[in-house]
Amino acid sequence: MRLLADPDALEFAASIRELFDDVADPTALRVAWGDSDGRIPGLWKRLADSGALGLTVSEEYGGAGADLTAMLPVLIEIGRAALP
Hints:
The N and C termini lie far apart (33 Å). The chain has 4 helices and no strands. Helix content is 57%, strand content 0%. It is mostly helical.
C-alpha cells in the first residue's frame, strides 16, 4: 500500500498553492471571513478549471481517476491557505 504522494501529486499541489496565493491572498480571506456567505469570488471556478474538483473522480466520468493519496497534498494546501 502506497501512503506517500507521488511526484505528480506533489507538483499538482504546488500548482494549487500558486492558485491560492493568487486568488485567496490574506486580503481576500479577511473579506470572505467577514462576509455572510464566506466566498472568495472566482475561487471555485479556478479550482474547477485546474482539475482539483475532479481529482478523485473516475476517468470514465471525466475526472483524473486519482486515489485519495493524491488528494492529500491538495487538502494540505487548503489548510495552509486557511480557506473558509
